Amino acid sequence: MNLKIQHYIDLITVLTQKEIKVRYKNSFLGYLWSIGHPLAFAMVFFIAFKVVMRIQIEDYALFLIAGLFPWQWFSNSVNAASMVFLGNASIIKKVNFPRNLIPFTQVLQDMIHFILAIPVIVLFLFIYHKSPSLSWVYGIPALLAIQFLMTYGFCLTVSSTNLFFRDLERLAVIFTTLMFYFTPIIYPESMIPERYKYLVNINPLTPLMVSWRNLFLNGILDPLSLIISLTYSIFAFMIGYLIYRRLSWKFAEVL
To answer: Containing domain of residue 167, as a range?
Structure first.
């Protein structure tokens, strides 16, 4: 049993290293692209909402960054999920291993990039005369685990289904775009009109992204939001894994 676990760990390590090398092959800026994308969006939203529309949110640049960085992890993983099996077709055909490790490593590498981007959030905290909280010690690992499970579940669904329904690649992009605006990232949940709050509250990403922002900005981790996020994550993973198990035996036929 220990040998089998070690084998899976080695396989995950190799696949993750491969994905990172492919991602940054012939890339001069490398890691900077991981933080440049959310920073660029933060600048656009800051100009649009703070400078032009003059939205009344304190430390709005920091507010944006605290939400955009964890969102980018989810968005990048789900948008890339549609191609992970197709992009690794040669490995799937030649090597016998659990196929679900491929989207697993995709989510893992995006999580690593998110972790490496946290110092940028710390920098902005200092710019706004704030500092990290001790609650980060347990809050960040807890939210990392919850978001990983949720993102992995979505990725299993998208990657498995896309092999049989190729339009899902485009639908995934539309889905993440719509979810972005339905999630309180560029606006606080307090600004949502009462009659529309139910739409935001049924969004599985809302309690998670709000928890990230509250943790980064205020050092607060609400237990109820954590439980709701965990419940959504388990549900998303269960659906994704069931779809994967139902379709995985046909993968070799369609690749």
So the answer is: 2-254
**Residue-wise burial string across 101-118, b where 16 or more C-beta atoms lie within 10 A, e elsewhere:** bbbbbbbbbbbebbeebe
Write the single-letter amino acid at 236. Answer: A
Two structure tokens written together for 53 = 């529309």
Number of domains in the chain: 1
CB proximity list for 1: less than 8 A, separation 6 or greater: none
* Tokens 């010690």 found at: 137
* Distances, alpha carbon 85 to alpha carbons 82, 117, 130, in Å: 7, 27, 43
Question: Is 26 in contact with 32 (CB distance < 8 Å)?
Answer: no
pTM exceeds 0.85, yes or no: yes
pLDDT tens digit sequence for 28-87:
555 666 677 778 878 888 888 888 877 788 888 899 999 999 999 999 999 999 888 887
Question: How many Å separate Cα 39 from the centre of its chain?
Answer: 16
Residues 103 and 152: their CA atoms lie apart, in Å, by 7
Of 81, 85, 71, nearest to 155 by C-alpha is 81
Average pLDDT, the chain: 85
